């Protein structure tokens, strides 16, 4: 898959979240504008942990598909998410990198941030099965 | 035992059910008690993560487990306190079957004044045939120190 933007547009849940992709200087970044249906805590307001996890998992999948030029989507095996800061009612960004690529299983790390890339909101480590 | 905890839970239940993210998934909260929390999300085209197979996105499953885990912590509180997820680990045991509703069930195994530990499972019909398992830790965001925790079982 050469066009991560088209990939995300083809995934209904990514459209539901409003996630889009941007490639700049050979680096893939996911962008998710704030929307009311992403809120988990109305009083703060804060993004739902599930939204943050979804964005991070999508970043990992998009990076995998883009780097491996796979036509099939990788399957998540397990993920672990650390929530470092509250996700505010702001535009969010996520980026992933392949930490270790095996023949079938890939280990991916991803981070999400909002205003300041040096202050991550959450970080994901995950294993994914890639189609052979 | 006072029945006050149950009262706030009943009042809070409708509010919790109106969490925008859960509402956006068209999910519903089924139960919040000291014993466990349960939530359900019916299958819908907006949840699909793989257009080729129609399987829902992993984020739907993890998001539902995250939400239900938080509610399991709420079920152990005497009064509403904001909580924050510290970490969440998901094991994806098998893909969800397209067309079938997903149920998440979570239990808070241990709670202190600061931290709560939760285990959860997502499934279609049988909790022993899991789609995903989760382990989560939460932080209680407290102001002051009123008695917060109410026992899981009072006998």
Please tell me about this protein's structure.
The complex is a heterodimer of chains A (132) and B (155). By secondary structure, chain A is an alpha+beta fold. Chain A has a single domain, classed as Thiol Ester Dehydrase, Chain A, CATH 3.10.129.10. Chain A has three helices and eight strands, in the order ααββββαββββ. The model of chain A has no long low-confidence stretch (mean pLDDT 94). Chain B contains three helices and eight strands, in the order ααββββαββββ. In chain B, strand 6 (102-111) and strand 7 (115-123) form a beta hairpin. The model of chain B has no long low-confidence stretch (mean pLDDT 88). Chain B is globular and about 50 Å long. The interface between A and B is large, with 38 and 37 residues. Strand 5 of chain A pairs antiparallel with strand 5 of chain B, so a sheet runs across the interface.
Overall form of chain A: globular
Count of the domains of chain A? 1
User: Per the principal axes of the C-alpha atoms, what is the gross shape of chain B?
Assistant: globular
In the sheet with the most strands of chain A, the strands line up as: 1-2-6-7-8-5
Secondary structure elements and their pairing?
The complex is a heterodimer of chains A (132) and B (155).
Chain A: H1 4-10, H2 12-17, E1 20-24, E2 27-32, E3 39-41, E4 46-47, H3 49-68, E5 75-83, E6 92-101, E7 105-113, E8 122-129
Antiparallel strand pairs in A: 1-2, 2-6, 3-4, 5-8, 6-7, 7-8
Chain B: H1 4-17, H2 20-25, E1 28-32, E2 37-41, E3 48-50, E4 55-56, H3 58-74, E5 83-92, E6 102-111, E7 115-123, E8 132-140
Antiparallel strand pairs in B: 1-2, 2-6, 3-4, 5-8, 6-7, 7-8
Task: Quickly describe the structure.
The complex is a heterodimer of chains A (132) and B (155). Chain A has 132 residues and is of the alpha+beta class.
